[in-house]
Amino acid sequence: MNDIKRPEGGPPPSPKNARFLDLEPTQMLKGEADQAARRALRSLLEEAAKTRLRERWGDRIDGLARLAVDQYLNELDSSLGVEAILERQARATQTTESELADLFRDGGRREKP
Asked: How far apart are CA 35 and CA 41, in angstroms?
């Protein structure tokens, strides 16, 4: 007598603690190896391409990188300057709003300067 209940014509249900089992480990390993080979080839191609680019256009690439980085940093400096101005303005506005609230909280009995 077999007391394992299985769907019509299907395999017996897996034990709860057997979910980690890969029933086709060789296929899984082959898939991983294929992916690793593709990544390695891509990496080698990138290294070879970088070498060739440096051979042919090394100075131009350095110059282009310098220009791009300088422009980026100039824009970043400008953005930081604008941010500082906005922060100062926000603090000034907050101070004004606080003084305005104090003015009305005191019922308008504030000393004149």
From this structure: 10
3-state secondary structure of 1: coil
Q: pTM to 2 decimals?
A: 0.49
Give the sign of the dihedral formed by CA 20, CA 22, CA 25, CA 28.
Answer: negative
DSSP string, 66-101: HHHHHHHHHHHHHHHHHHHHHHHHHHHHHHHHHHHH
The Cα–Cα gap between 85 and 94 comes to 14
Residue 23 carries which DSSP code?
S
Mean per-residue pLDDT, 98-104: 89
Where along the chain do its domains lie?
23-105
